[in-house]
Structures are given as C-alpha cells and as structure tokens.
Amino acid sequence: MKIVTANRLSDGRVIYADASGDPVGALDQAGRFDGDAADLALSQAALRPATFVNPYLVEVDGGRPSGRDRFKELIRSQGPTVGNSLERP
Amino acid sequence: MYRYDEFDTAVVRERIEEFRDQVSRRVSGGLTEDEFKPLRLMNGVYLQLHAYMLRVAVPYGTMNSGQMRRLARIARVYDKGYGHFTTRTNIQYNWPALSDVPAILSELAEVEMHAIQTSGNCIRNVTTDVFAGCADDEIEDPRPWCEILRQWSTIHPEFSFLPRKFKIAVIAAPKDRAAMRTHDVGLQLIRGEDGETAFRVFVGGGQGRIPHIAQEIAPAVPGRDLLAYLTAILRAWNLLGRRDNIHKARIKILVASLGIDAFREEVERHFATLRREDLRVPDEEVARIRAYFAPPPFADLPRTSGAFDRASLADPDFARFARNNVRRHRQPGYATLIISLKPQGGVPGDITADQMDLVADLAERFSFDEVRAAYEQNLVLPHVRLDDTPEIWRRLAEAGLATPNADLVTDIIACPGLDYCSLANARSIPVAQALSEQLADLDYQERLGPIRVNMSGCINACGHHHVGHIGVLGVDRKGEEYYQITVGGSADEQAALGEIVGRSLAADEVAPAVGRALDRYLEVRREGETFLQTVRRLGADPFRDAIYGAFNAVA
C-alpha cells in the first residue's frame, strides 16, 4: 500500500492526502492506495500545487512507513526526535 | 561595526518587495514550485522535512545588541522560540511559515540584516576569524575586507548563476580560526613587500562527498587587486566548471581536475584581460569602511584584574570557565569571552529567544555592543573587561549559557541531521547528545585538552566531519542509521582530512567507541601533546584498534 505525502505550501508542514485527496496532517488519516490508484492519487495531489508541494508516494505497511526511507518518513510524520522543537509545539 | 548606507538600505528593501511579490505569485499559482525554488533559495528559504527553514546571514559573524534582540523576537513571534547558529556564522529558523517570510525579512531589514545569498548558486555569506579585532596575532582587522567582499558580491550579475555555491573565508593571522582552507576561496591577509595589505589566496577547498583542502594559487595579491583577482577566479570557474553534474560542479572539482598550476594559468589569463582600475576599491572607500571597524574606546587598564583573580581563587566553577572560555585580548585588561552553545546533552548551536535577549544585554553593557557568531557554533563577546568577567559568568550561568567547554571534546559541531534536514541520511543531534552526556565529566574533558568532534548527518558535510579531529558521518545502510568515524582531520592552518578508521557503527555504539579512542589517547600521548599531535605522530592505527578492538574481541 502507498500514501501520498507532501509539504503544505503556506507553512511547509508535512501533509498527506486522505482518501478523498484532501490534505490532512496526520499519517494515520492518510488514504492508502494500491497500484494505479496510488499513481492517480499522486497525480491529483500534483494538480493542487497551492496546497501540495512536491508530492510523492510512500510505501506503508500496517499504517507505518516501510521501504528504504521508512525512518525518514517516520520522523517526517512525528516531528524531530530531540531538541528545542519538542518543547514548543 | 558597519552601518548600512542608502544604497545598502535600498537594495535590501527592494529585494524584500521583490520576494514578497514572488511569494504572492507562488501562492496564487503564478509561479510553479520549480520556478519559485531558485528564487526562494536566493533569499535563504529552504523547504526541509517538517517546514520551511530560513537562513539569516550574520555577515562575518558580527552583530550588535539590537540585531541579536531582533533575532530573538523573530524566534519568539514567527518560530518556536529558538534559533540555530551554523558553522558559517548564519542563524537558521526551523519553523517559519512561507507566508510570514516577507514580514520576517522586513523585520531583519529594520536592523540592517537580511537573508540574501544564504543559499543558492551564488557567493555566500563571507566568514572570518571570530576573534577579529581582539587577537594579538592579527595583522589587521579582516572585517573591512569582508565587508568590501559582501558589497561586491551582493547581487553581482555575473556571479548570481554560478555552477554551484561559492564560499569565501578571510583570516588575518597565521592561526586559522575560520576553517579558511575548507572554503572555495580562502584569503589570508598578509603584509605585502611594499608594506601594504595583501592576500595569500587559496582556492578549491570544500567538503561534501569529495573533500579537498584549498591549495595556494597566489602568494600575495595586493589588496587593491583583490576584487579583480577574485573576479578572475570566479570567471574561470564560471566558464569551465561543470554544470551537468551537481556533485562535480564546485570549484574544488575543477581545480583538482585541471591541477592548481593549469587553473592558475586560467585565472591569470582572465586577470590580464580585466580592467583592474574598474575593480579597484578607491582608497577613500577602504578608509571609510575601515573606520566602521575601528577599535572601540578601550579604557586604559592594568594587564591583570583583581576582581578576576579573586573570583578565580574563590570559585572553582568560575576558574574553570575562565580557563576554558576566556581568551587573551590584545588590549590590556580586556578579554574575549566564548559563550558555549553546547550545554551538556544540548543541541549544538541552538539558543532560545530568552538566551539571545540575555546575550544582547551582556553585549550592550559589557562588550561595546558587539557579539560574534563563531565557526564552532558558539557566540563570543569580543571585548569584555577582565574585571567584568565574574558578573558576566554569573548571568550566563543563570541562563544556562556558562558551559565551560570551549574547544573541549563536548564543544561538538553538528548539523541538524535527519531530525530536520531533507538531505540527511541519519540523525546527528542525538549522537552528539549521547557523546556530550557520556563525556560530561569536566575534569576528564580538561585532561583530554582541545579536541574537536564534528558530526554530519550526510555526506554533504555541513557538520564538517572531514576536518574534525574526530569526525562522525551518518550514513544510511538499508534504511538504518550507521556512523562512520574518521580521525586526524583538522580545520586549522595545518588543515587536513580525517582518515576513515573502519566500518560504520550503529548509533548506540558511537559514543562508547569515541570514548575508547579518547582513553587510548590518554594512554599513548606524550607530555603536553594534544590529541591531534598524537594522531599526527602515531597515525590512526592506535585509535582504530581502540574503536574496533572491543568488537574484534567479541568476534
């Protein structure tokens, strides 16, 4: 399964496309797509450049990022693991 | 310090309005992301993992208290209450909204700051010795020349679309405190045969995936010809440098492929064709800029300070701070004070808005309204009275800014790594924190003496791992974080690249492995020998054995 992710144009925050293609902030709200449906969801996100910046597909397994960039995608979904940002949501 | 003239003010204001319009067109769909990206980069705006990142230039690392307070305000109003100082003496904000950036730039302009050319394929913020104007080995203050370079290179039409970024560092002492030879061009100010200012010019330094130490291309370029000579260097590279491969576009690759002698011939060929008189900075203009950097009105003080001596005797904590973070100043009775941004277990280079406000207050009251950003991701109060150092220390300590570890092993340089950076392969900050915690014993750190540990979260080497006495490079191994260790690197006047000592280690193995290498150093060093001197005498083998011996024993 795959999800569509990007950064939001206005503030750069990590967003995902939900099942309807609308932006959501949480990975667990992301729509999960198979095969051609994933490519279609990606192309639909690309058609909304005022919201989705640089959209791409991420493999997920059981709702968590999988594949080679799984750790990077986990950090993207949860925020920095350490540091000053943690104390200031 | 330098104050904007009408031209500076106009350039910065016009640039903000231009960028405001570009942001507006991007939001309205008039510009695609591909079109917008190079425009935002030229204004210091990156898009990172979680948000935009704004990199603000601190030209040659010099700020006044008003500027520092404004940086604090921006952190508080537009970000998450903190900023991050980098090895190129910039400050980065990790969470600004794109829609707020024009307002942030306007706020910066009010205090004569900007983010122009802090990214993109152009000439970046010029850096220098953090002890400029303080060090007693300095020939003359290098900052007027940095300012001349800033003015010359800002929105320079010929050099705004270079093959890649281009970084210049200037030093004015035999001791290199600016990692000068890791730059595309390094300038060492010297006294020419005619007694006038001249520059020893180095070219082709850089880190990244193919690191090079800059090589000398000219032994003594007269100051009056500096801009012409730099124009010739940039023109040669601009014409011959590769644009087909981002990894081979830096000038270091061209210099290495042609050889320094052939590249010098190219540069001299261009130099001969330039109308040098057009690029000569008028003497009166040099004098005008120099005047901005005239020494502050120092008081006539005795060389020693009773207050300093009494505090050192009475309070071991102050004494330790004085040993490690207070440096000799060329003016009797004064000192240069390093504010470490490396608290135990902290994030290297991070500083909160409240801390910035405190530093601004201290600079205003005690350091002729001046504070510096250092290559090592620390801050410096350049001109403080020895008499005042106990009070400054107390106030720093109350704010968590008095870590007495300048140049010691926990004064770690580290990039933001995979916690923030879209290019990173691995995290840097947690590994730096683990090492900082493991080596927290300050007696042990002082026993080790000066050791620079540098960490990068990817091969782009923003954490300067290649030139760390101990370098740590995060790599990706099938989706897992691993770390490669080097020893023997150096960013000083004997600049050298570190040697990779073996296979990469898992994250939790790094701090113990570095600890073993440090213990080995204590075993094998000679009297008075620094870590780097020991590595240079013995090579990497003893440290390799220490790092991997534990694994080999298990195997």
TrEMBL record, chain A:
It comes from the Bacteria. Pfam families: DUF2849. InterPro entries: DUF2849 (IPR021270). This is DUF2849 domain-containing protein.
Automatic annotation (TrEMBL), chain B:
The keyword Transmembrane does not apply. Signal peptide: none annotated. The keyword Zinc-finger does not apply. One of its GO terms (molecular function) is oxidoreductase activity. It holds the Pfam family NIR_SIR. Keywords: 4Fe-4S, Heme, Iron, Iron-sulfur, Metal-binding, Oxidoreductase. Residues 119-271, 407-547 form the Nitrite/sulphite reductase 4Fe-4S domain. Residues 52-111, 347-399 form the Nitrite/Sulfite reductase ferredoxin-like domain. This is Sulfite reductase.
